[in-house]
Design a protein that fits this description.
The protein is of the alpha/beta class. It folds into two domains: 136 residues, CBS-domain, CATH 3.10.580; 71 residues, Histidine-containing Protein, Chain: A (2-Layer Sandwich). It has nine helices and nine strands. The strands form three sheets. The chain has a three-stranded mixed sheet with strand order 1-2-3. It has a three-stranded mixed sheet with strand order 4-5-6. Strands 7-8-9 form a three-stranded mixed sheet. It is elongated and about 70 Å long. The protein starts with 5 loop residues before the first helix and ends in a 10-residue tail after the last strand.
């Protein structure tokens, strides 16, 4: 069973900014390339941080309202430092949160979720930048065709991994939602089948209607 990796889904080449790039050039770089963030690089091709539209917007947010209607903003020390920053290395969020190209979609998604970030820089074993991957890139796995999902479940999971006969199970996939109909010898095999199906790239949900010949669970509920 093949899982899409970060290396397969990442965007490259990556628009980059040297650490000494001034504020105005950073704004132009984002605008001209239609991106919302760029990695900030040291002299050896390694990312040291990431500067985003949100980082740059702090300069405006930290300014006094010319109309005098808004109160003077109260900023934390780190926010004030960014608001007053003039170069990429003063404006960036650091350190850069990075991923490796061999990571699965699940690994990358968990890091993004845990760190509440929108993107990861992808680096090799030496720390050199390879690409960038965003939440949108990870979600592309759910655009996988239903036929491809069904074929992988039937061929790789049911036949090769579980050694089930083709007549034992039918697999229906619609909009990524998998429905299993069939029968197995032992009840304990049902949650295993469901878990394996859920791990297939592009699967949104799994519903099973699977009969069993022998209850080898002792009557206990088997969580899928």
């Amino acid at each position: 069973m093949h899982h899409r990796t970060v290396g397969e889904l990442m965007t490259r080449p990556v628009v980059q900014a040297p650490r000494e790039m001034p504020f105005k050039e950073l704004v132009g770089l984002l605008t001209e390339n239609d991106v919302t963030a760029v990695p900030v690089m040291d002299g050896s091709g390694r990312p040291i941080g990431l500067v985003s539209e949100a980082d740059l917007l702090r300069k405006s947010a930290g300014q006094t309202d010319p109309s005098g209607l808004l109160p003077v903003p109260r900023l934390e020390a780190w926010e004030r430092a960014k608001a007053e920053g003039a170069r990429a290395d003063a404006l960036m969020s650091a350190p850069a949160v990075c991923a490796r190209p061999e990571w699965t979609v699940v690994e990358a998604a968990r890091v993004m979720s845990d760190r509440n970030i929108r993107r990861l820089l992808v680096v090799d074993e030496t720390g050199k930048l390879l690409g960038i991957i965003t939440r949108g890139d990870l979600l592309r796995v759910f655009l996988r065709h239903d036929d491809a999902i069904r074929d992988e479940i039937e061929r790789d999971l049911l036949r090769r991994t579980l050694r089930l006969a083709p007549s034992a199970m039918t697999v229906d996939v619609r909009e990524g939602e998998v429905t299993l109909n069939g029968s197995v010898g032992a009840r304990s095999l049902i949650p295993v089948i469901v878990r394996l199906c859920r791990s297939v790239d592009g699967v949104v949900s799994v519903t099973e209607h699977i009969a069993y010949g022998t209850d080898d669970t002792g009557g206990a509920a088997t969580a899928a």
